[in-house]
Structure formats: structure tokens, C-alpha cells
């Protein structure tokens, strides 16, 4: 996979620290705004990225690029992804996918007509620990209570309080805790248990954006509480509680470094099946395989999962506006 990166923000810096460990991945190009060109040039020099552009169209039409990684603010995902697809490139789009299900379906139609792959970059559902938890859930079922927590005091929160609004706190750019952090919890819940019957979001609002919030998902036989906060500090712990036992883990729901299984019969076990230390390595290893083998079936499976997550996200936003 010959990757062209659009964007130079925090997520790109994070990804590039592990890119060299991903087999089959070639860093072909990076494109940013003219204002961010010095950053892009520094990244290119540090990580041996072959080309640097100040125009996304030039990257999208670069013959040395076959896949575009879209890592721009949420509100720009749709237009940048569409531009890349129309230029004949496969696309990896950072979470959250796009702003509406209609946009996602339009982009998928464009990709299918051109026989291209499009996937959403979301770390947790590609982790071996997630796949292992999915198997362990059956061992402690029936499941009745789920509590997923991604609390992370934002490095940009103090600036936010002073009126310096970064995109992740800007409602006009689809910012906020629901789309930035709780999205990981939604991916986990949908990946493990499917779509809920009802969705209700209870946000803490500051400056017209949710800086934290609790999302309730109602299933026929279980209840899920999804907690996320950018304005609070704790070491989060997540639980999946069943009649025969409990699965729990500490830390980010986007990382899942390890997990515990505690059985009602008394035995406890700790597991870690992750192959990489960096949270993004597993997802991009999967993406290289999917794109290089043109595995449309797996791409379609991931697309259906993303659509289900987007539906939950849309209902969560609607539940706030309707109250």
C-alpha cells in the first residue's frame, strides 16, 4: 500500500511513530495547508515521506499514491474523502466517518463504482484484545449490564476555558466529546452487541459543546452506559457484566491494553493478545491487507459496522436536540 496522508495534526504525528512497523506500508506523500507546510516538511524528513504537497488535489492525483489517509477535522472528512475517491484512490478515513449516513452511503457508492476500498480508521475493533473479548463474552453470558468509560482530560481543555477553541471543541467542526471520545465506546458496544433499540445522550455542555457526557443504549435484554469526558480526570475502568461473570479493563477504550475475566465460580484470568504496543498498528496492518488483496468482502463488513455506529451517533445527537 502506497499511502498519501492528508493532514498534519496530532493523530498524524501519532500514527507516524508506528508506521515503520507496519509491513507492506510505504509512506508516499503528505499534503497539508500552506500554513502547515513547515510541519509537513519536518514530518517528511523525520519519517522519510517521499513527497510534500500544499494542495490535496496534487496528492490525490499522484501516481505514486494508491491509498489516501484522511486525517483532517471531522467536518472536512466528506469533501476530502470524495475528492480522493473521484481521483481513483482507496481511502482510509479517520473516525468519525462522516457527518451523516447519507454522506457515507454516497461515498460508498462512488467507491463501489470505481472498484475502490473505503474504510474508517477506528483502533479498537481491530485489536486482538477486542476479538478475544468478543469470544469471552459468550463465556459469561447472558450479558445484562455494560459500562464503558473513556475519560481523558484534554490537553486542549484549559485553552478551551480561556476561549481558544480547537477543532475538537468546535461544534461547527463536528467537535465535542461524543464524536471525539465516546465514538470509541459506541464502536465497542456495536461491535460486541449490535445496534440498540433506543439511544439517549445526556451531555455536559460548555460554550455550546459537550465537554463530557453519558450515552445510554437500551437493548431488549441489557443496558449499556457509555461515559466519555474531556473535562475530567480519572483512570477509567470499563465493565461487561453477565450472569456467569464479568469482563473488565482499565484505561482507554481505544487501546484495551489488557483485560480481566472474573467468573462467578471464582477463577480470574488476565489476558493480553495485542501484537503491537501502539494502538494504531493493528488497524493499519488490517488495512494494508484489505487494500493489497482488494478484500471487498471485509471492507463491506467494516462499512456495515461503521453505518451502524453512525446511526447510533445520529440518534444520540437527535436525542439531545429533541429534549
TrEMBL record:
Q: Where are the transmembrane segments?
A: none
Q: Can you say what this protein is called?
A: Dehydrogenase
Q: Which organism is it from?
A: Lactobacillus kimbladii
Q: InterPro entries, per this entry?
A: Gfo/Idh/MocA-like_OxRdtase_N, GFO_IDH_MocA-like_dom, NAD(P)-bd_dom_sf
Q: Tell me which residues make up the Gfo/Idh/MocA-like oxidoreductase N-terminal domain.
A: 2-118
Tell me the superkingdom of the source.
Answer: Bacteria
GO MF annotation, one: nucleotide binding
Q: Which Pfam families match?
A: GFO_IDH_MocA, GFO_IDH_MocA_C3
Location of the GFO/IDH/MocA-like oxidoreductase domain: 153-247
Amino acid at each position: 500500500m502506497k499511502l498519501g496522508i492528508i493532514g498534519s495534526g496530532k493523530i498524524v504525528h501519532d500514527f507516524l511513530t508506528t508506521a515503520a512497523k507496519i509491513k507492506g506500508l510505504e509512506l508516499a506523500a503528505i499534503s497539508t495547508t500552506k500554513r502547515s507546510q513547515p510541519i509537513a516538511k519536518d514530518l517528511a524528513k523525520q519519517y522519510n515521506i517521499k513527497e510534500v504537497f500544499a494542495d490535496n488535489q496534487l496528492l490525490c492525483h499522484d501516481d505514486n499514491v494508491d491509498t489516501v489517509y484522511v486525517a483532517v477535522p471531522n467536518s472536512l472528512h466528506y469533501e476530502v474523502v470524495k475528492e480522493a475517491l473521484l481521483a481513483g484512490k482507496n481511502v482510509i478515513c479517520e473516525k468519525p466517518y462522516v457527518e451523516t449516513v447519507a454522506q457515507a452511503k454516497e461515498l460508498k457508492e462512488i467507491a463501489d463504482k470505481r472498484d475502490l476500498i473505503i474504510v474508517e480508521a477506528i483502533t479498537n475493533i481491530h485489536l486482538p484484545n477486542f476479538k478475544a473479548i468478543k469470544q469471552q463474552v459468550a463465556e459469561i453470558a447472558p450479558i445484562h449490564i455494560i459500562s464503558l468509560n473513556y475519560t481523558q482530560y484534554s490537553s486542549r481543555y484549559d485553552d478551551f476555558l480561556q476561549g481558544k477553541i480547537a477543532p475538537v471543541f468546535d461544534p461547527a467542526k463536528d467537535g465535542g466529546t461524543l464524536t471525539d471520545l465516546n465514538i470509541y465506546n459506541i464502536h465497542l458496544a456495536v461491535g460486541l452487541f449490535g445496534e440498540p433499540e433506543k439511544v439517549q445522550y445526556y451531555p455536559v455542555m460548555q460554550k455550546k459543546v459537550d465537554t463530557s457526557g453519558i450515552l445510554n443504549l437500551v437493548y431488549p435484554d441489557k443496558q449499556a452506559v457509555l461515559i466519555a469526558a474531556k473535562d475530567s480526570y480519572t483512570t477509567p475502568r470499563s465493565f461487561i457484566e453477565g450472569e456467569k461473570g464479568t469482563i473488565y479493563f482499565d484505561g482507554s477504550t481505544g487501546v484495551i491494553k489488557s483485560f480481566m475475566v472474573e467468573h462467578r465460580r471464582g477463577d480470574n484470568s488476565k489476558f493480553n493478545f495485542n501484537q503491537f504496543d501502539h494502538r494504531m498498528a493493528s488497524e493499519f496492518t488490517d488495512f494494508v491487507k484489505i487494500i493489497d488483496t482488494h478484500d471487498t468482502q471485509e471492507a463491506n463488513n467494516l462499512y456495515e459496522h461503521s453505518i451502524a455506529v453512525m446511526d447510533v451517533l445520529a440518534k444520540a445527537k437527535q436525542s439531545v436536540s429533541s429534549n
